Amino acid sequence: MKPVLALVTLALVLAACGINAERSAHVIDPHSVPSGLMSPASTTTQVLASTAHVAVYLEGEQHLVIASRTVAVPATLGSALAELAQGVTSAESAEGLVSPVSTATPISLTGLNGGTAVVNVASSFANLGGQDQIIAAAQIVYTLTLFPGVGQVTIRVRGRPAQVPTETGRLSPGPLTREDYANLAPL
User: Fold this and answer.
1) In this structure, is residue 18 part of a structural domain?
2) Between vectors from CA 13 to CA 8 and to CA 14, what angle results, nearest 5°?
3) Is 130 domain-assigned?
4) What is the DSSP letter of 124?
5) Structure confidence by residue, pLDDT tens digits, 110-152
6) How many separate helices (H) and strands (E) can be counted in the chain?
7) 106: number of Cβ within 10 Å
8) Domain of 66?
9) What is the mean pLDDT of residues 36-60?
């Protein structure tokens, strides 16, 4: 008899904890509604970024200068090179910045082999004057080695291996690193 009495008591306790069904709707006093439930629902939506920023390196007085450019997501080596090829903006020009590499367009990434970016430039790269060619190579090297996993750059002229001057004027077949242009590093 005790087990039956325990089951009946348990059933009565559980029934008392339940929510009763209402036969009709009724108005609830707004002051008895928990805080926040009467506020309108948020209409905020998260917008994913469709642009990113890349750094390109331009020639300033005695050293390279970092400039930020906006590109479509994801920012890639190719999009950074495309921005570098555009040259300086009017605002950058007004600040005295120049971009020798922008005269050697088109510039394109032709490969990425074990941390070495392979870049193809137009034949006009070979026609740049000594210091301008050094700066142009440094612009490419600094811009691309800013990307994770890229530590070196090989520059080809019209698809052919090229001897590219380092900051000392020494010709190198590459791959080139930031150390080859350390004295041109941004301050």
Assistant:
1) no
2) 100
3) yes
4) G
5) 999 999 999 999 999 999 988 999 999 999 999 999 999 999 9
6) 4, 8
7) 10
8) 51-184
9) 74
Range list of H helices, 59-183: 77-85, 90-94, 130-144
With cut-offs at 50, 70 and 90, classify the pLDDT of residue 8.
very low
Q: Is residue 173 part of a domain?
A: yes
Contact 122, 158 (CB under 8 A): yes
Q: Residue 184 and residue 55: Cα distance in Å, rounded?
A: 16
Q: Report CA torsion sign: 95, 101, 186, 167.
A: negative
State residue 37 phi and psi, 5-degree precision: -75, -25
**Distance between CA atoms of residues 72 and 82, nearest Å:** 12
Contact 72, 51 (CB under 8 A): yes
The model's confidence at residue 10, banded by pLDDT at 50, 70 and 90, is: very low
- Give the ranges where the chain is alpha helix by DSSP (H): 2-17, 77-85, 90-94, 130-144
pLDDT tens digit string along 164-187? Answer: 999 999 999 989 999 999 999 998
**Contact predicate 57/88, CB 8 Å:** no
Report yes or no on 22 lying in a domain. Answer: no
8 Å CB contact between 166 and 172: yes
Quote the pLDDT of residue 48: 61
State how beta strands 152-157 and 116-121 pair.
parallel
Number of domains in the chain: 1
Location of structure tokens 């007085």 = 61
Kind of pairing between the strands at 152-157 and 160-161: antiparallel
